[in-house]
Amino acid sequence: MGITATDISQRIIDAVLAQKLAPGTRLGEQPLALLFDCSRTIVREALTRLAARGIVTVSARRGWYLIAPSREEAREAFEARRVIELGLLRGRRALDKPALTRLKKHLAQEKAALRGDDVGARSFLLGDFHVCLAECLGNSLLADTLRDYTARTTLIAMLYQSSHEAAQSCQEHVAIVAALERGDAAGAEALMAAHLASVQSGLQLDTQTDDPLHQLRQALTPLASPAATAASVAPSTSRRPRAARRDGSDPADPAPAYLGALL
User: Fold this and answer.
1) Which domain holds residue 136?
2) Terminus of the chain with fewer CB atoms < 10 Å: N or C?
3) Same domain, yes or no, for 75 and 192?
């Protein structure tokens, strides 16, 4: 049996969770059909499903793209996750042994990924913990919904330069599972609320909200060369007047940055 639209959409979601696909990445039908050795019809079906789930968007002229959420959409995504995840934990009884075993196995995989150098595996496991937890809490429908929101917040973390440490996330996951093992549902809910708040606070969501060119402006700010920086702080050893440049500028000024070097 060949690859299905479900397989393709899941592969794309997994790649997003592993931070291997950036926000705004173009998902061309023909390249994907060649990659998966299938028809464009199957690819189109997969992308249509992802569009319905809010992971990709389509334009008549530009084609299919991964979403690049606005700041307001980022806040809404975290609010949705809080509603789902805290609701799942509220009033929950102690987990049974198979569920705890599965969660502890997942935590062991997270810790192993932190010790390794596979950033993609680490990112995937940290995001997938929340889906795994929902499944262990017995709600597969909300687990599927949470998988989409987790993928969305992964794109948000990439877009808004999250400073939240992976090791910190893992430690917070460990604390949540420990509370559930004790049968402390209220404690687990409070820990999850703090965890989601911590992840959100690590995002740059409140800077230059009215400047659509903020990110590009930051990236293309001219860089001073080390020599120019040193010259600006070193005392002058000569009082000999400097000859003006041919363009009339002062030779003491650092040379203008070459834009091509920044791109």
Assistant:
1) 71-201
2) N
3) yes
- 78 and 54 inside one domain: no
**Residue 101: both structure tokens together:** 């075993």
Q: Are residues 83 and 192 in the same domain?
A: yes
Angstrom distance (rounded) from CA 201 to CA 241: 53
* Percentage of the residues of the chain whose pLDDT score is greater than 70: 80
Q: What is the pLDDT of residues 128-145, one digit of tens each?
A: 999 999 999 999 999 999
Alpha-carbon distance of 186 to 127, in angstroms, equals: 22
Residues comprising the chain, all counted: 263
C-beta of residue 153 within 8 angstroms of C-beta of residue 17: no
pTM for the full model? 0.74
pLDDT digits (tens, 9 = 90+) for 66-92: 999 999 999 999 999 999 999 999 988
Residue 63 forms beta bridges with which residues?
59
